[in-house]
Design brief:
By secondary structure, the protein is α/β, with parallel strands linked by helices. The protein has helices at 8-14, 45-73, 103-117, 137-147, 164-173, 186-198, 214-236, 249-257; strands at residues 77-78, 88-92, 96-97, 100-101, 123-127, 155-158, 179-185, 202-208.
């Protein structure tokens, strides 16, 4: 079988572009990259001043919700030694790792177990995410607490605490909690305390101390955005994702704790 000759006509017929003669680069407009515009500062002094003032105003607006959260919690945040006597301690979920509480969640649960051992609370309400069968924060939290001496019948699980507002509203409306000691890390406890107070709970927050590592700084930065949502939740008071009928878990646990 004879091979077709390699001629310009044959290459054109086959759809192959001929190579440029002499090794010169062919201009390809379809490969031209778009020109990027350079951000330039305003030229006039007045325009620069207005730009700086606008940037400062945006920063202030971004910080307002977080500032309000801290002011709203006020003197209602302290340590386990400062916590007043309440019937219920409330622990917010903070993630699982291979089915076990993450270090941050474990530290929250350690603080709750200490509150129970010292007699400051009688019942622990664990609230977290169980939106998937393979992910069950409340049961993992319950297991951790029982391993540290908290009786199983003194632990109540809320399986629909998908965020702080949902947890606070459900604690009040579903479980009938009127007063509680909340347990979380320092960067979160002010928001949690303010939200639970907005939901009608007389709340005191225990701030679990943590080293200033990357996780801590990430949590603090995340609070800026979360505080904005929390302010809207406190203002408009939306229903949680799942509300449902009232549950007697806390009432029954308190009854079992009465001598």
């Amino acid at each position: 079988m004879r091979r077709a000759r390699d001629t310009p006509g044959a290459r054109a017929a086959s759809g192959v572009r001929p190579a440029p003669e002499g090794g010169a680069k062919r201009h390809r407009p379809w490969l031209r990259l778009p020109r990027l515009s350079v951000l330039r500062l305003p030229r006039s002094r007045r325009a620069r001043r207005l730009a700086v003032q606008g940037l400062m105003a945006l920063c202030v607006l971004a910080l307002l919700p977080a500032t309000w959260m801290r002011m709203g919690s006020g003197a209602r945040v302290g340590t386990t030694a400062d916590a007043p006597a309440r019937e219920v301690a409330m622990v917010f979920g903070a993630g699982l790792r291979k089915g076990r509480p993450t270090p941050y969640l474990a530290h929250r649960l350690d603080a709750a177990a200490e509150l129970y051992r010292t007699g400051r609370v009688k019942v622990v309400l664990v609230t977290g995410d169980n939106s998937r069968v393979e992910y069950d924060e409340p049961d993992a939290m319950r297991t951790y607490l029982t391993e540290r001496g908290v009786p199983d019948d003194r632990i109540v699980s809320d399986y629909a605490g998908f965020d702080s507002w949902d947890s606070c509203v459900r604690a009040k409306e579903i479980f009938g909690v009127d007063r509680a000691v909340l347990v979380s890390q320092g960067f979160h406890i002010h928001r949690a305390t303010t939200l639970c107070r907005s939901a009608g709970i007389d709340a005191y927050g225990v701030a679990v101390d943590e080293p200033r590592d990357a996780t801590w700084y990430y949590g603090g930065t995340r609070e800026l955005a979360a505080s904005g949502k929390a302010a809207l939740d406190a203002l408009f008071r939306p229903d949680p994702r799942f509300l449902g009928p009232q549950e007697a878990g806390v009432t029954e646990a308190l009854a079992s704790a009465t001598p």
